Amino acid sequence: xxxxxxxxxxxxxxxxxxxxxxxxxxxxxxxxxxxxxxxxxxxxxxxxxxxxxxxxxxxxxxxxxxxxxxxxxxxxxxxxxxxxxxxxxxxxxxxxxxxxxxxxxxxxxxxxxxxxxxxxxxxxxxxxxxxxxxxxxxxxxxxxxxxxxxxxxxxxxxxxxxxxxxxxxxxxxxxxxxxxxxxxxxxxxxxxxxxxxxxxxxxxxxxxxxxxxxxxxxxxxxxxxxxxxxxxxxxxxxxxxxxxxxxxxxxxxxxxxxxxxxxxxxxxxxxxxxxxxxxxxxxxxxxxxxxxxxxxxxxxxxxxxxxxxxxxxxxxxxxxxxxxxxxxxxxxxxxxxxxxxxxxxxxxxxxxxxxxxxxxxxxxxxxxxxxxxxxxxxxxxxxxxxxxxxxxxxxxxxxxxxxxxxxxxxxxxxxxxxxxxxxxxxxxxxxxxxxxxxxxxxxxxxxxxxxxxxxxxxxxxxxxxxxxxxxxxxxxxxxxxxxxxxxxxxxxxxxxxxxxxxxxxxxxxxxxxxxxxxxxxxxxxxxxxxxxxxxxxxxxxxxxxxxxxxxxxxxxxxxxxxxxxxxxxxxxxxxxxxxxxxxxxxxxxxxxxxxxxxxxxxxxxxxxxxxxxxxxxxxxxxxxxxxxxxxxxxxxxxxxxxxxxxxxxxxxxxxxxxxxxxxxxxxxxxxxxxxxxxxxxxxxxxxxxxxxxxxxxxxxxxxxxxxxxxxxxxxxxxxxxxxxxxxxxxxxxxxxxxxxxxxxxxxxxxxxxxxxxxxxxxxxxxxxxxxxxxxxxxxxxxxxxxxxxxxxxxxxxxxxxxxxxxxxxxxxxxxxxxxxxxxxxxxxxxxxxxxxxxxxxxxxxxxxxxxxxxxxxxxxxx
Length: 862
Known about the structure:
The protein is α+β, with helices and mostly antiparallel strands. The strands form 11 sheets. An 8-stranded mixed β-sheet has the order 40-41-44-42-45-46-47-48, with helices on both faces. Strands 18, 19, 20, 21 and 22 form a 5-stranded antiparallel β-sheet that branches. Strands 23, 24, 25, 26 and 27 form a 5-stranded antiparallel β-sheet that branches.
């Protein structure tokens, strides 16, 4: 639930605490009003009054950042994120989850402690352990500057490497250990810092300096970007690939350029990495549908001979597709010719000792796309099984032998069940999972000649002889993959961890070399969130979110548990909001289930004002039903906590389901949303929850534009708050972002063409350019229907967002020209939504005052 509602609320937030809630289907109980639910007393068992969740409590929330186990599961390291209102820096990408590095000795019962005393004003992110676990690589972030550090557990010493590492939330720049004392990492040129950390601060400083140069009149203040008839793509990004020896202190530059997707062979003899070039400009005659961020060229380094070889130099390498064979010096990767598209790509095999490259075509198959799981359109990762590759694909119709890669959601997409197939050099394939009804595309364990996968709720080991063994045949539980999908695509391991869908609180550890999986039954009656695990050691680290805060717990196979860390204990004194679900029919036939949040002191005899949260393709999570409780994370991102803040003020917060197939109509990508949302509101009112005359609307990010769109289609929403979205599809298509001012090598002048030209992989896809069908862009842009808005709107935006502030400039100008009731709030120095405490507090005060004014409810008490 947490993951899905995070997406509803914001593009990415960090879980820090939860409000437990009993979920009850909204069926009318006995009573004249048909009201559902029971009164929730906001008192503790001792009679003391519970506190209301307020902006002050939100700013107290702490978090747990990235968590990693050492290879032998002796120790655990994680980042303890301080309270939202006490972070050391609000100028960086908060998704990096920086904090104090904590270590827990898993061989003892001791709680976690600080790994070392942090520098004043610095925060840290753990990265990886050395092969034997003797050293830990981590990032230090301090006022926009990043360093790669290494902690030595044997000596307790710290080292910081000289060159600045590149880090990103969308590309994998993680360093790799090539021995216990040597690490290789991509470094930026002198004077540069990662955009994820420095973009806003650097942009502000550069603008200020340029302005002053102009005003003084003595120096040039100019920058230049260019376009090429041949599409470019030949300019490499500046940087270095650095090999650092932590014993001698020597750091050697292995190659010039910025490298991504570093992968070392099983024996650590060879290193594969892709050199990054500027993204080629889209081909004018072809829709821009490939979710690629750069052109990548494959390089293979012989770490023993100190030689480098460029592999298939005229090909573009698929991001994250590099996979070394566990038992040979063979590298698998996905590539396509420069000038063509990802859909023409094929799997390739490079022999590091023979220097030969073969194309292994997936004859008669249509590759499954990761976009089906919410990210880029690219093939699922491959697995080496002996000397062959296991891939995830769909069999094509009989007679069609041409290899396909059809993006999900496109008109000719063959979206029947995807299976695991074995392929080899001659193009023949074997279906490994045809007998199963449901198969996971993510392995939960990989060895040199076998892999484990979840199919029909069980874990099956499949080996090179195509033999299948159920490792969970003695476990009476339905299982699902517990691994988070990651852009970085960390190397597969021999073990994995799964959770049970039929037995809440049950975790299953899988070792591909074992005869059976190991279940761990926790004391929780709720679905648990495993964060790190080792099947060989029989341990799992999980996050236990309860009404009294969040605990980090270690569980062992024998059923023994130990607390490692506790945060947000003050939540035990907070009155909890409660989630419910409601089912109803739309379009006279389709049944939908939607979620809504009740105030802590909900009384069945009352009807409440409602705030509807708008978001495209929004659905109520499948695991929310009438007989299971669930938990919703509250993030250090303000918009994850906003529903609970609103509920504490006496509002019902409603998440109407509007699945993509109903959202999209012949009129546009969200042409059906208005009817779906209003039918949900009507159902909520019919069940006695909502006051139909006091309904407001909220939208953030992609919800920002949907809230504006809904405002142009109906007058049912008496007050609208739209935050950090956009309003004009054509100008948004063509707009650069703040990235383009000084980080011009990031290819920021593609605008938002990907969002609109593609169909299946974008909620706002039109399948047209503004030149081929300008009318489609106009018809679906709220700004061109601003005259139809009849209710007051508050627009909130920030100057350093990925969605340009100018989008809401346009919308407000239209509202101003038309004499509509509106207010435009602009925050400075903020990215995709305000995060600094003063601005967050101010925004919250404005939002609640706006709803109170127009929905006729008392204003906030704080």
